[in-house]
Design goal:
The complex is a heterodimer of chains A (268) and B (369). In chain A, the strands form two sheets. Chain A has a six-stranded mixed sheet with strand order 6-7-8-3-9-10, sandwiched between helices. A four-stranded antiparallel sheet of chain A has the order 2-1-4-5, with helices on one face. The C terminus of chain A is likely disordered. Chain A is an alpha/beta fold. In chain A, 42% of the residues lie in helices and 23% in strands. Chain A folds into two domains: 176 residues, P-loop containing nucleotide triphosphate hydrolases (Rossmann fold, 3-Layer(aba) Sandwich); 76 residues, no CATH class. Chain B contains 17 helices and two strands. With 369 residues, chain B is mostly helical. Chain B has a domain of 208 residues. A two-stranded antiparallel sheet of chain B has the order 1-2. The N and C termini of chain B lie far apart (45 Å). The radius of gyration of chain B is 21 Å and the shape is globular. The longest helix of chain B is centred in the first third of the chain and has 27 residues. The chains are: A alpha/beta (268), B mainly alpha (369).
């Protein structure tokens, strides 16, 4: 059974049909890749799934429950965690403060108890800080815990973001271009990290990703979007070699979009 | 183990083992603490009661600054109707004590509750919108309060105002001053604890990035409303403190000018800096006092371009405030709090670092209209 299903989602912004009849299914402990050229509607699909947009048509089913009408924070509480393309962190705060803030729902003490500094609140707070530290260690960020997020390099921010979304205790992780800003080496490591995280945290992962070698290596299933519609889906290698997918990436002028083809070749 | 190793610093600028001053290093720090204690706790004892009453007003203003900071500094929303919240708090407490014959303590409690309730109702309707439009709604509320709430005879006692006697035991200006300090300490404590709990962290996340905050499971609207209610409770307490200090609350002081002074003193004091806010609030309350008591100060101020020759207590904060606001804009967005941060950090046992701007530096774009 799928843990997360997007069924026939459509949304239009003015004259742009950003998503048209898009369906995605994510099985338990599956890693699903979403690829497609820029402007294909991949992030829009994430925004629909996580609740930032309401679809014009279609439904989102999470663990057998229709969550289409729910607010973003309610979906987060159910276990949908997401990262953002342009890094979703509180930039003025330190790495640790971000990791503790993200555990908002695990802070199970009363608000008044927090305001008065009650004993239980302090105990829970200590637990949250300890968990923040251990999550930072998992992502190799232990050294950076007290560093302000704003100054960190982009690739590091992406790792901090993954640690932060893990702190929200998700069952399904939606990652928007997790490897952007990373070199090939770092991206390869990220692949290992994602496979580890799936095992140790029992996660299902959906990732929008341009780095094809990474997609081919870690994904169990891949969807390709183009102009808001599903172009192809299937096993990573099949989708990569799908003629329409190749055409979508190549476009009219092969020189412009040569990079995806090269990286696809590397993927073998 | 990792927790111990990595909790070493809190500024991110310095690394390695946490700095602890030696016994000799504590000596000058304690001396400065003692000097602050002397000025705040001992000096007022030697002043006449009329002066002490103004110091108490400074304490009340400090609480107002802390109240506005919850909205402006933490959650990044402007309230331009705070004079109404403080005013309603003042009248409520006076009404409970004078008209209902209840104790001062109940008066303060009810004033705090009414302050929170006002914010809950006003915020409940208006906080679906944020930024400029929310600011305009609070501004309208201030005007509505002036024209309606403050015209209710039973509450405000009409033109003569409502009497607000001091409580037993605290019936001298000096004793009442210490009581006010006690309330300031309480508000400071709650503010401090809040920012170390999930509620405070949620506010900071909402201010900086509501979208990200919601993916953390934070209900953005509820968090903003919560901030408004806390702000309202603090404002109610400040109003009650001021009422029983003046022993008479009259209608004419709670106008829009006062709301402006409140906002200016909060920003000049320094968003998110408790030290700065307390100093800012105190400074603006006591500005007319300083002009009156410090010989030559008025002439010095009058030499500044655009400053009128005679600074009455009503206009002094509205003239000096914007000038200090310019300093904020140009050099110190974090206001007094940012300027004195090297000293306050040093006082709390860190190294003296003149360039320390703090990890959560205030930006001019912090509050988005």
């Amino acid at each position: 059974m799928s843990v997360l299903e997007a069924n026939h989602l459509s949304i239009r912004f003015g004259g742009v049909q950003a998503n048209r009849d898009v369906s995605v299914a994510v099985g338990e402990f599956e890693i699903v890749g979403i690829i497609g050229p820029n402007g294909a509607g991949k992030t829009t699909l994430f925004n629909l799934i996580t609740g930032f947009f309401a679809p014009d048509a279609g439904a989102i089913v999470y663990k057998g429950r229709d969550i289409t009408g729910m607010a973003v924070n309610q979906r987060a509480a159910l276990g949908l965690g997401r990262t953002f393309q342009n890094v979703g962190l509180v930039k003025g705060a330190t790495v640790r403060e971000n990791l503790v803030t993200a555990q908002h729902l695990q802070a199970d003490y009363s608000t008044v108890g927090g305001l008065l500094g009650s004993g239980p609140a302090r105990i829970v707070e200590r637990r949250l800080r300890e968990r923040a530290d251990s999550l930072a260690d998992v992502l190799g960020l232990g050294e950076l815990l007290d560093t302000q997020v704003a100054g960190l390099p982009y690739g590091t921010l992406k790792r901090v973001e993954i640690a932060t979304v893990l702190a929200t205790d998700p069952d399904v992780l939606l990652l928007d271009e997790p490897s952007s800003g990373m070199g090939p080496e770092e991206a390869h490591q990220l692949g290992d990290t994602l496979l580890d995280l799936r095992r140790s945290f029992g996660l299902s992962i959906v990732m929008i990703e341009h780095h094809v070698p990474l997609v081919v290596r870690v994904c169990d299933y891949v969807y390709c979007l183009d102009f808001g519609q599903m172009l192809a889906e299937g096993l990573p290698n099949d989708v990569r070699n799908h003629p329409q997918v190749v055409a979508a990436y190549l476009g009219e002028d092969p020189d412009d979009e040569a990079a995806p083809v090269d990286s696809m070749a590397e993927g073998n | 183990m990792t927790a111990v190793a990595s909790s070493a610093t809190d500024s991110g600028r310095t690394r390695g083992a946490r700095f602890r001053p030696s016994a000799l290093g504590w000596l000058p720090r304690l001396a400065v603490w003692a000097a602050i204690g002397y000025v705040v706790l001992y000096l007022p004892l030697g002043r006449p009661p009329t002066d002490v009453q103004r110091f108490t007003e400074g304490v009340a203003y400090a609480i107002v600054a802390l109240s506005l900071n919850v909205m402006l500094g933490y959650v990044g929303q402007i309230s331009l109707g705070h004079q109404a919240f403080v005013g309603v708090g003042a009248f409520t407490s006076a009404y409970i004590v004078t008209e209902q014959g209840q104790s001062f303590w109940l008066g303060v409690l009810v004033a705090a509750a009414v302050g929170g309730f006002q914010a809950l109702v006003l915020g409940g309707v208006s906080l679906r919108i944020r930024g400029l439009y929310f600011a305009l709604i609070t501004l309208s509320y201030g005007l509505v309060a002036e024209q309606n709430i403050f015209q209710i005879q039973e509450l405000t006692g009409g033109g003569a105002g409502q009497a607000a006697p001091k409580p037993d035991w605290f019936d001298t200006e000096w004793r009442y001053y210490y009581l006010a300090l006690g309330f300031l300490a309480l508000v400071l404590y709650i503010d401090w604890r809040m920012m170390r709990s999930k509620s405070g962290r949620a506010l900071l996340a909402v201010r900086e990035n509501p979208r990200v905050a919601s993916t953390f499971g934070i209900n953005v609207r509820a968090a903003t409303l919560f901030a408004f209610v806390v702000s309202g409770v603090f404002a109610g307490i400040a109003g009650a403190i001021k009422a029983h200090s003046d022993t008479q609350v009259s209608v004419d002081v709670w106008n829009f000018n006062l709301a402006l002074v409140f906002v200016i003193m909060t920003v000049v004091g320094g968003l998110r800096s408790r030290w700065g806010l307390v100093i800012g609030g105190g400074f603006f309350a006591l500005l007319p006092y300083f002009i009156e008591k410090i010989p030559g100060l008025e002439d010095v101020l009058a030499d500044i371009p655009l400053v009128p020759r005679v600074l009455t207590p009503e206009i002094a904060p509205l003239v000096i405030g914007p000038l200090l606001l310019l300093v904020n804009l140009i050099k110190f967005p974090g206001g007094i709090g940012q300027q004195i941060r090297p000293i306050t950090r040093w006082l709390s046992g860190h190294r003296f670092d003149i360039h320390d701007k703090g990890p959560k530096e205030v930006q001019i774009t912090d509050v988005r209209a």
